[in-house]
Please model this.
Amino acid sequence: MPQQLSAKEQSLFRTVVRNYEDKQYKKGIKAADQILRKNPKHGDTLAMKALIMNSQGKTDEAFALAKVALQCDMKSHVCWHVYGLLYRAVKNFEEAIKAYKFALRLEPESAQIQRDLALLQIQMRDYQGYIVSRRSMLQARSGLRQSWTALAVAHHLAGDLAEAERVLTAYEETLKNPPSKTDFENSEAVMYKNSLIAEQGNIEKALEHLTAAGKHNLDRLAVLELRATYLAKLERKEEAIKAYRALIDRNSEYKKYYDGLIEAMGLVATDHKARKAVYDEFAEKYPRCDAARRLPLDFLEGEEFREAADKYIHRMLDKGVPSTFANLKHLYSNPNKKALLPALVQQYIDSDRSAANEEPKRNGDTSKGASAAYYFLAQHYNYYLSRDLEKAMEYIDKAIELEPESVDFHMTKARIWKHYGNTQKSSEIMEKARTLDVRDRHINTKAAKYQLRNDESEAALKTMGMFTRAETPGGPLADLHDMQCVWFLTEDGQSYARQGKLGLALKRFTAVYNVFDVWQEDQFDFHSFSLRKGQIRAYVEMMRWEDHLREHPFYSCAALSAIDVYIKIHDMPLTNGTNGSADANGEDAAERKKAAKKARKEAQKAEREAATKKAEPNKPTREGDSDAKKKDDDPDGVKLAATSEPMADAMKFLIPLLQFSSKSINTQIAGFEVYIRRKKYLLALKCLLAAAALDREHSKVHEQIVRFKLAIDKDIEGVAAKSAEVIKSEF
Model:
C-alpha cells in the first residue's frame, strides 16, 4: 500500500512542487527530505526529488531514485509522469511516450500529462497518436480556439485536408459573435483555412472564401497574392491582370509578379515585342525600378538584346552599381550574350561618357564610370564560364588605380588570386580589403574564410573575434559555437583536416552535426508556442522544413568532410604497413593509445571538478567559475581521433546523407567508400549503382567499379550465397 501523508505533509509536498517550478532546487530537496524522514516510501515525494536532482544535473541518480519511487507506488500517475519527464530530458522520446501513456491511463483527466504526451507525439511525427491526444484535449477544453486549431493542424499534417477544414468550420459555427477585425489569431486562422481549401485543389471555393472572409484580413499582401493566383488559375484574365498590376504597384522589383501578369495576359514566349512593352510600361512608370529593365534581357535576342543591354549597362555603370555583373552573369549560359556583354562594357570605356566619371568619388567606395566598367570586366574574366585570369588581374588593377579605397575591388582581386590557386596571396589581399572598412561584418567574414583556406586558423579566429562578444567564457570560438556559426566550424574543420590535425577536424564536424541536432530539438518549443500565438501557416511551413533539415548543403559539406577524415583514420595503419614501415605503424598506434589514455584521465578530472561544483547548485557562481562550466573534456578532439571503429562512427554522418541527399554523386561515392571498408558489399553495390546512374563518366565511379570487382573476387568466401547471387545479377 502506498504511504498516506498527513495534512501538514501534504502542504509540505505542495511546497516541494512550488520550489521545483520556481527553480529553488536546494529548498525543494530540503522539504522533500523532511517528508521522507517520516515517510521514506512515499512515491510522489521520491519522484519529485528525482525531478529536482535531474534539474541539478544529477541525471543517473535521478533515474535510480525515480525507479525506487515507481517500486514504492506503481499506481501513482505522478511517478510515471516524472519518469517520462526524465526520459524526455535525455532525449529518449519513445520511452517518455510510454511513461506518459501509463500516467494518462492512471489519471485520464490530467491536462498536463495529456499536453506533454501530445508534444512528444508531434515531435516524433506520430500523427495518428497526436490526433487522438488533440481530440481528447479538445473535448476537455472546447471553448478554446487553440484546441480546435491544433486538431486541424494534426489532421493536416497527417494528410487529411478535408477533415482539417471541417474542424475549423465546426469551430466557426460555435461562435455567437463575429471576431473583431483586429483579432490577429482569427486573421491567421482564416488564411490557414483558405490554404487548406486551395491545397485540396478547389480553387473556385478558395477564391469565394478569400473574398468573403479575407476582406478585412490583417495580412493584406497574402490576400492580394492569393487572389491574383486564384484568378489566374481560374482563367478570369481581366481580373487577374488587374490584380497583378496592383501587386507590381506595391513592389515593382518582384519577378514573380511580372511572370504572373504576362501569363495572365496570355502572351506567348516568342512574342518578345509585346512582353517587352509590358516591362517598358513599368520602367517608365517607376524610373528607379531595376527589375523592369533587367528582366527583358532574359528573353530578348539579337539586335533587340543589344539595344536593351547597352541601355541597362550604361545606366548601371553611370551609377557605379557594384552588383551589375552579379545581375547579368546568369545570361552567360547563352554564348551570344556572353560574347556581347563585355563588348558593350568595352565600348562604354572607349566612349567619351566614361571620361566624365574618370575622377573617382571621394566620399566612400562607390565607384562610377570607368572604374565600375573595369570592375565589371575583371569579374567577367574571373567568372568560370569566361575565365582569363591574366586579363582579370589587368582590369582589377586598373579599377583599383582609379579607386584605391574600394573594398569590392580588393575583394575581387583576392578572388582572382584564389582562382590562381595562390591561397597565401588571396588571404593577404582579402585582409587588406578588410582593413579598408573594419566595421563591415561581411568583409570581416570573408577575410576569416580566406585565412582558413590558407590554413591560418589562429589568425582567422582572431579576425572573427572582432565581431564576437568579448565577455563569452572560452573566447571567440565558444561564442561562434553558441551562435551556431556553421560555415566557420566547417571551414575550420576542413583546414585542420588539410593540416593533418584530424582530432580537431572531427571536433568541428561533430559540432556541426550537433548544431543540426539542436535545430531538430528546437522545434519542440514551437509546438505549443505557435498555437498559443496563432501562427499556424508559419508553423506548418516550419514542420515541413524540419522534415528535410539535413538536405541543407551545410550538413552535406560537413558530413562528407567528416567521412573523409574517418576514412583517413581507418586507412592510416594500412598505409603505413604498405609503405613497409611497420615500426611507424606500431609507433602510431602506441601514440594514439597514449593520447586516448591522457584524454580519459582529463575527462575524469573534469567530471570530478563538475561533481564538486554540483554539490552546491544554488550557490551563486563567481565570474571566474563560469570557465569550469564551459570546460570541454576533449578540446582537441583526441578522443574522437583515437576511435577504434572509425567506420562505425562515420555511419552517424552517412545515414542522413543517404536519406536526404541521395541525388548527390559525392554522397554515393562516400557511401561506397564506407561500406566497402565495412565489407557490406550489397550496400556498397547499391551506392555504386546509384553513382553510375547519376554520372557514369565520373572518374571515381570507374575506379570504384574496379575496386569492387577486386574486393569481391578476393573475399568471395565471406559473402553469403544469397548476397553473392544478387551481386552477380546486378553487377
Remarks:
- The longest helix spans residues 582-614.
